[in-house]
Design a protein that fits this description.
The complex is a heterotrimer of chains A (270), B (267) and C (282).
Chain A lengths: L2 H7 L7 H20 L3 H24 L15 H32 L5 H23 L3 H37 L5 H17 L1 H6 L14 H36 L13
Helix pairs in contact in A: 4-5, 5-6, 7-9
Chain B lengths: L7 H23 L10 H16 L3 E6 L5 H20 L3 E5 L2 H17 L11 E3 L4 H15 L3 E7 L4 H10 L3 E6 L5 H7 L2 E3 L3 H10 L2 H33 L4 H12 L3
Parallel strand pairs in B: 1-2, 1-4, 2-3, 4-5, 5-6
Chain C lengths: L10 H6 L3 H17 L10 H11 L6 E7 L5 H17 L3 E6 L2 H18 L7 E6 L3 H10 L1 H4 L26 E6 L4 H7 L8 E6 L8 H5 L5 E2 L2 H11 L5 H34 L1
Parallel strand pairs in C: 1-2, 1-4, 2-3, 4-5, 5-6
Helix pairs in contact in C: 2-11, 4-5, 4-10, 10-11
The chains are: A mainly alpha (270), B alpha/beta (267), C alpha/beta (282).
């Protein structure tokens, strides 16, 4: 029954592709025209309907019975086009994001604001990455490929690693400041942290290496205490938090799906 | 599990029942039932942090995390809308760096609306909402730079955060900012607790918009969530008892217990 | 009004507020020192690491394993030794290996590592192992590979068709896969569990997260959805010991040990200052 629709949305041969593109453009222009001229009182119900149908698609795809041999139901084939639609929207908004960057930093440079040279460096880096990235993919120019390699592997990857390694320094200053035994709870927290830290590294393991590896005394080895804290105490707390988050997520999703959400933009006049 | 149909019972019982309970509580709240919500210190601190920024004449920073456009980002924007209404009233400068282009477009709209609803559209600066980068550490360095350059007075971090959370929080700490953070990423909560003044933990994050707005629909949903959690806790207790009965091989009861355990076991 | 004399900061108060720059220099020193003067300490293997090792050991020779390297340069220190250790084990066991990544950088890194390890074990590309390259859109790829692996990964990282490669012989869908090992710095294990693991009850799913991610994955090891966990650099060092090799992780354990000791010492110093100040104040 849905076969013609699946065929319509699948990849088309080059001969008919221009007609599809032209059709999509005409349809989009018409849709935008209709949406702009829609009376105010109809806009909210329309948004509610589209939201409901979009949510229903994923819920139905999940709950509808599947064919055991193909592992699919009637909606499964539409998952890829639906995700492509999401990517398309993301791509369009990325243009707005880049425009925001150009606006903020272009203005910094034009007005020679304090630190304008940083803005210039950012824009030059952005343009260089785009140009050499495209040349790397679509051109046979060996120099461009080398430059891209230097930019990507020589600079970007290492700058990423540098930023990540900052965390090591920050955790030292943050834990030095935070772990003060101001109360009984704080003391328990600190002792637990010490046990986990000692259990995590060989130097800590060496402290209790004299204890047997089998029998009840083995439970007192620091690595086993650490394992017990993580797999019993910590995992139990994490499970509880995960349950709360799962139910909270479900509640918000339901409110949005059924257009029951309130506050901020959800109550805005449109 | 790719489809619910491979084993529908546990999903149907837990998910659908929880959904029905939540909708039922929302409807009863909308009909005027009085509901109580406990105090959440992190959310109470929002006004204090904005007040401090006003006194110091320094900007307020809002970071919606590095996740995409999802319910987590929507919740963050809901909290930021409330903060923006306060900053619009007091005339604080705000900064909102964003890592996702879709979140950026919605955020700009939300903050603009907040200023408009407070009657100060002229105070809204479009440059205060900035798309920086969708790469994790490029975004992290951008935000850290903003914090240092602008010497922010208050920092609000709500959304999806990963390894960059400590970079933001510790940089904020360096400039002496008062910091409130909330995330659903359990691995990042310890970092926020170590470096921030207030941290919103676990599903408090999803309670934030209800807590701030006191809207009956949201409060009803919150109570429904608690019923949902109660359902899960009950299932945990029943499951533990059933597993114990199976292990003890109690006659007649163990086969019923085994059936119950099989019913809820999915991989 | 009499001018107030500035309050004298005592030694004990200073202990509570050591300049962060001093802390950073100390950390830098304790990380660099063991790299030049190696410190070898005995390693104890955690049950989580051992379980992953045993799960790989239980796969019959010639079995098919997918390795997903969803990490980038930022977490290289932890994820790179993990990737190398797991690939060494898989190739040592003569298993067929397919590597890919949901991250562009991870794709490049994992290809470099796999090529190097393959050379050590005489693995031939296309026959014994393959690299499917970078694959965006996690959910779509996972849902698709459950039903159709040759269709999902029709070409390798160089655009070469995979269907005629001997390594892919007999691989149609997830039922033909013995194990999946994900090396990641994110919560992607949830997607694997939710979308893939349940589709083949015999499939072994191993996870190699960064150390900070590890605690949240424990409940899934208890439930059997994850067979074993290689926790950060420490897990990689333990795994290197299990596969009889000395790699980056084993070499880095000295630095990690000293950094942990430094943090503990600083916390103790801060607390001594705090307690003495409080006692004197009261």
């Amino acid at each position: 029954m849905l076969e013609p629709i699946v065929r319509f949305f699948s990849a088309q041969p080059p001969a008919v592709l221009p007609y599809y593109v032209a059709g999509a453009v005409v349809f989009s222009v018409l849709l935008i025209f209709v949406l702009i001229n829609l009376p105010s009182r109809m806009r909210k119900p329309l948004i509610a309907l589209v939201t409901f149908l979009a949510g229903l698609f994923y819920a139905a795809e999940f709950f509808l019975p599947i064919d055991k041999t193909t592992q699919k139901n009637v909606l499964t084939d539409y998952l890829v086009p639906a995700s492509k639609l999401g990517s398309l929207l993301g791509g369009m908004t990325l243009t707005l994001g880049i425009l925001s960057l150009l606006r903020v930093h272009g203005r910094n440079i034009a007005r020679l604001r304090a630190g304008w040279y940083n803005s210039l460096a950012l824009l030059v880096a952005m343009v260089a990455m785009v140009v050499f990235g495209l040349m790397d993919s679509y051109s046979a120019n060996a120099t461009a490929k080398k430059v891209f390699n230097v930019l990507f592997e020589g600079m970007l990857i290492n700058m990423d690693a540098t930023m990540f390694s900052l965390i090591a320094f920050y955790i030292v200053s943050a834990s030095y400041r935070a772990f003060r035994i101001r109360s009984i709870e704080a003391t328990i927290l600190m002792i637990t942290a010490f046990l986990v830290m000692l259990g995590q590294v060989p130097v800590g393991n060496a402290l209790t290496a004299w204890l047997p590896t089998e029998g009840w005394l083995a439970s007192l080895r620091v690595e086993n205490i650490k394992q017990w804290i993580l797999s019993q105490v910590n995992a139990a707390a994490l499970r509880a938090i995960a349950f709360g988050l799962g139910v909270g997520g479900l509640a918000i999703s339901l409110r949005i799906w059924l257009s029951l959400e309130r506050g901020a933009y959800f109550e805005k006049e449109i | 599990m790719q489809h619910a149909f491979e084993k529908i019972e546990p999903v149907l019982i837990v998910e659908v029942l929880t959904a029905i309970i939540i909708i039922w509580r929302i409807i009863s709240a909308q009909r005027g039932k009085e509901l109580f919500i406990r105090r959440i210190p992190g959310l109470n601190a929002i006004d204090e942090a904005i007040g401090r920024a006003t006194e110091m004449g320094r900007p307020v920073l809002m970071v919606p995390g590095i996740g995409g456009f999802s319910i987590i980002a929507l919740q963050a924007l809901s909290i930021f809308s409330y903060i923006a209404r306060s900053t619009a009233r007091f005339g604080n400068r705000i900064l909102m760096p964003v890592a996702d282009a879709t979140v950026y477009t919605v955020a700009e709209e939300v903050i603009r609306d907040a200023y408009q609803s407070e009657g100060h559209p002229e105070r809204f600066d479009p440059d205060s909402i900035r798309f920086l980068s969708d790469r994790q550490f490029a975004f992290a360095s951008g935000v850290a730079g903003l914090i240092q350059r602008e010497q922010i007075a208050s920092s609000f971090m709500f959304g999806e955060f990963f390894a960059e959370s400590l970079i933001f929080a510790e940089t904020g700490n360096m400039v002496g900012a008062i910091q409130v953070a909330g995330t659903v990423q359990t691995t990042q909560i310890p970092f926020f607790i170590a470096a921030c003044d207030y941290t919103i933990i676990g599903d408090e994050y999803y309670a934030a918009s209800a807590y701030i707005s006191r809207n009956p629909t949201m409060l009803g949903s919150l109570v429904g969530q608690d019923f949902g959690k109660l359902l899960i806790v009950s299932l945990c207790v029943i499951g533990s008892v059933a597993a114990t009965l199976v292990a003890l091989n109690v006659p007649t009861l163990s086969s019923a217990s085994k059936w119950l355990i099989d019913l809820f076991t999915i991989r | 009004m009499t001018p107030q004399t500035p309050k004298q900061v005592t030694f004990w108060e200073r202990l509570q507020a050591i300049d962060r720059r001093i802390l950073y220099v100390l950390l830098l020193a304790v990380i660099i020192f063991p790299l030049f003067v190696p410190i070898r300490l005995p390693m104890v293997t955690m049950p989580s690491t051992l379980k992953l090792y045993q799960a790989i050991e239980s796969i019959p020779e010639g079995g098919f394993v997918i390795v997903s390297a969803t990490w980038s340069g930022g977490t290289r220190a932890e994820n790179m030794p993990q990737t190398e250790a797991i690939l060494r084990h898989l190739m040592k066991r003569r298993l067929r290996v397919a590597v890919f990544s949901f991250d562009q950088q991870g794709s490049q890194f994992s290809y470099n590592i796999a090529s190097r390890v393959a050379k050590d074990f005489g693995y031939e590309y296309g026959k014994d192992w393959v690299h499917w390259g970078f694959r965006p859109v996690v959910g779509v790829v996972m849902k698709s590979l459950v039903r159709d692996i040759p269709g999902t990964f029709a070409t390798d990282r160089n655009g070469k068709p995979t269907k005629d490669m001997p390594v892919m012989r007999g691989i149609k869908d997830i039922k033909n896969v013995d194990a999946i090992v994900e090396i990641a710095a994110s919560g992607i294990y949830m997607d694997w569990i939710g979308l893939v693991v349940g589709a083949n009850p015999k499939l072994k799913f191993g996870f190699c997260p960064t150390a900070v991610m590890a605690p949240e994955t424990y409940p899934y090891m208890d439930s059997g959805q994850i067979v074993g966990i290689m926790e950060g650099m420490r897990g990689a060092a333990e795994y290197e010991k299990l596969v009889n090799t000395i790699g980056l992780a084993t070499k880095g354990m000295g630095s990690i040990s000293l950094a942990h000791v430094l943090i503990m010492l600083l916390i103790i110093i801060g607390n001594i200052g705090y307690i003495v100040t409080r006692v004197r104040g009261s």
